[in-house]
Amino acid sequence: MRFGGPVEPGRGFVLHHVAQGESAAEGSMRIGEDLAMTTTRDILEDFAMGRGPRPAMLALGYAGWGPGQLDNEILANGWLTSDRSTAPRDEIIFGTDNDKKWVAALRGMGVDPLLLSPSAGHA
Predict the structure, then answer these.
(1) Mean pLDDT over residues 69-98, rounded?
(2) Is residue 34 a part of any domain in this protein?
(3) Taking CA atoms, which of 26, 27, 33, 41 is between 20 and 30 Å from 112?
(4) What does the alpha-carbon distance between residue 70 and residue 53 come to, in Å, rounded to a whole number?
């Protein structure tokens, strides 16, 4: 289980695989080609009983942004974004070793975390 942001800390979300070509279940929001996020009670109960889709990750709570806030944070270099990665995506998303996820994601983008600077700039 993961804990998200401070908004509704008791609200559960399950991020899980959906087979390509398969439609996401009612109450699910498809994310890309093969992921979905589901908040329905039945999937939360299935997850708690060890049933349901695999791999999957349960998170409680979430963070939210106001209109344009996330765009402005990205423009201010508050986020590191990439459209390519060689990192094993499923291991980063669903893996249990949280301490290694950040480094694996950066290395998958070709970034050595030891070379990051605490100062932001614009290239």
Answers:
(1) 83
(2) yes
(3) 33
(4) 30
CATH assignment of the domain containing 3 = 3.30.70.1300
Picking from 18, 44, 43, the residue whose alpha carbon sits closest to that of residue 32 is: 18
Residue 60 structural domain? 1-64
Query: Residue 92's Cα: distance from chain center in Å?
Result: 9
Total-model pTM: 0.73
For 40-57, letters b (16+ CB in 10 Å) and e give eeebbebbeeeebbeebb
Q: What is the pLDDT of residues 41-77, one digit of tens each?
A: 888 788 778 887 888 888 888 888 899 999 999 998 8
Number of folded domains in the chain? 2
- Shared domain for 72 and 46, answered yes or no, is no
Among candidates 9, 60, 14, which has minimal Cα distance to 35?
14
